[in-house]
Each structure stands twice: as C-alpha cells, then as structure tokens.
Amino acid sequence: MNKYNVKQISLFQFIFIIHGAQLTIGNLSLPRRLGETAGTDGWISVILGWVLAMISSFFMIRVMRRHPEDTLFDLALRYLGKWGGMGVAILVLLYYSFAGFAAFFSLLFIIKSWLLLATPTYMVAGLFLIPGYIVIKNGIAMLGRFNEVIFLISIVLPLLLLLVLKEVHFYQLLPVLKEGWGPVIHGVTPTLLCFLGFETAFILYPFLNQKEQAMKGIFIANTLSLIVLLEVTLLTSAYFSPEEIVRYQLPVVSLMKSVQINFIERVDVLYLSAYIMVASVTWMTFMWSAVFGMGKLMPGISRRMHALFHTLLILFISFFYKPSFPESVNINYWWANFGYVIAYSLPPIIYLWMMMTVQYVRRRTRV
C-alpha cells in the first residue's frame, strides 16, 4: 500500500507544480544574461537547456518508477545505508531550503526595487510569508490546488507580451549562429537555472495518482517553461539592440514599458505585479519540499512546526538582510551551482548506481 495515498495529486497538479517552480524572477533577467554570453542566438541556448533538463528528468523518472512509493530521501537511505543516505538526504534538504531562500529573497529584491521602495523589507516578507505558511503547512493537496489557480493567472502574462509584436524587428536575430556555437554553448549555463524546479519530482512522484503518466507530465511542464523562456528571449532580442539589452536589469519589464493601453497607465507595473504573484509559487514549492524533507529526517516533529520554523527563520533574516542587485545575482549564482549538482548530476548518478546495485545482486544470487 502506498504510504502517500492519503493525499495525492492529479497529473495536472503535478504539471502545474513543476512548471510553477520554474517560473522564477530570474526569468525576467534571462535575456540580459543571454545577451552577455550568446547575443541574439540566446534562444538556441534556451532550447539546449531544455534538452539537458529533459535528459535529467528522464533519468529521474526511471529511478522513481523502480520505487514508486519512495521519495529521494527514502532512496538515499535504501541505496547508501544509514550514514551515507543520511548525508545525501541532508545535502538535498539543504538544497531545497537554499533554493526556497534564494527564490524568496530574489522576489523581495524585485518588489523593493520596482514597487515598494520605502516599505521595510521585513514587512514585505511578512505579507508573503503568511499565505506561504498556510499553503505549506496544509501539505501537497493545498499546494496542488494553489498552483492550479496561479496557472490560470499566469496565462495572461504571455498574452500581454504579445502586445509588443508590432514594435519588434526579428531581422535583428539574423544571421543565426553569427559567432559560432561557442557563445551559444556558453549561454546554456544561465538557462539551466531557469529550468530548475523539475527536481521537485523526486518528492512529488509518490503523491501522483497516475504514475504511469509521470514522464508525460514532466515533459509538458518543462515544455511549458521552454515556451515562456523562448517568448521572452525572442521578443526582447528582437526589440532591443545587442548593446542595449545588457544595460537593463530586467529586460522583460523594460520591454513592457513600450506597451500602451488607453485605460492602463503603467502596463509594466501591472505585468510585474502579476508576475510576482506567479513567482511566489517557486519559493513555496521549494520550501514545501524542504519542510517535507525535515519531516522525513525528524519524524517526531509535526509538519506544522517545520513549516513554522522555516517561516520564522526567513522573517528573522529579512530584518537584517536587504538584498541589493549584486547580492541577488550572487545568491542566484550559488543556487544555480547547487542545482547543477542536485538537479542535473544527481539523477543520472542515482540511476547508474541503482543499475550497478541491481546487477551486483543478480550476480550474487546466481552464485
């Protein structure tokens, strides 16, 4: 019997949670980072990043299919023993906690820089932490329903971006590969951060009520994120010149300033406000994963207490830590490097280790 049968999620919720975890604030600055590395060929880097995310997702689902009732924390203890498994489980727990921390404070930086300049950081943090705590403490069912609602809101954002089509000049993207493959390959690195979030499938899989559809679900989630990233990359690259795009912290928001609607004075503020609500899903999903992991490692403490601990810790940090633009870039840099290990390297490593273990057991059985 599946120990996670009590509260399961549908395939659509599985897709929306993973896709929502990938809609970080970093997506708004991705065109600038691609402009610095790949130039107008950054859209090719986005596709290559999606390919790497799908390869890692493939290994992840292959691993989970062999142990459909286990999460990554259970698999670590199963294959690495008590101490080795505990070490990996703690590393994964730290990753989910740090990812939630990085996503949350990147969000705070954008709010403080663009919308609420004079509001104290801790007050902004508290406004987001209260609903976040409610969602996280109520578990996977609440998180799934919350993501369904947010997905419906997020549909409006790509449509708003299409309003700039009459202002863009796609000939600026030509010729393709004008500087060769080197800059394009170099540009894959920043795109990998934007696809982080699919690794939450390591935790979500046992809750999925249609496990045979997991590969399809993670493919759809990654592809939805690919469409969003391609849209913002192509539109900003075709609107701004290669020299101009690197001057903006958030090229996507700057792009929205050119949109004019008679009954809306600042479309960019409207767009950013809606995107902030959508990006809130990212830190909530990672924080829920961290709370779940703490529950596995310290089962004697209730999930509500773990959620309260994380919430109060972030609120306490917000009294002293006021992220600037360089600090926001730095924290996302460390998140990306941590993610390269957990999201992109760990799934194939676990799969190979699992296959080697299975082969070893078979040989011992024959002997």
Verbal overview:
By secondary structure, this protein is mainly α. The protein has a single domain (11-341), classed as Amino acid/polyamine transporter I (Up-down Bundle). 75% of the residues lie in helices and 0% in strands. α2 runs antiparallel to α8 (181-195), α2 (26-37) crosses α10 and α3 packs parallel to α15 (325-366). The radius of gyration is 21 Å and the shape is globular. The mean pLDDT is 86. Belongs to the amino acid-polyamine-organocation (APC) superfamily. Spore germination protein (SGP) (TC 2.A.3.9) family. It holds the Pfam family Spore_permease. InterPro entries: Spore_GerAB (IPR004761).
Write the SSE topology.
Elements: H1 11-22, H2 26-37, H3 42-66, H4 72-114, H5 121-137, H6 140-154, H7 156-161, H8 181-195, H9 201-204, H10 214-239, H11 242-245, H12 251-256, H13 267-297, H14 303-318, H15 325-366
Helix pairs in contact: 1-6, 1-10, 1-13, 2-8, 2-10, 3-8, 3-10, 3-15, 4-13, 4-15, 5-13, 5-14, 6-13, 13-14
InterPro entries: Spore_GerAB (IPR004761)
Family: Belongs to the amino acid-polyamine-organocation (APC) superfamily. Spore germination protein (SGP) (TC 2.A.3.9) family.
Organism: Paenibacillus gyeongsangnamensis
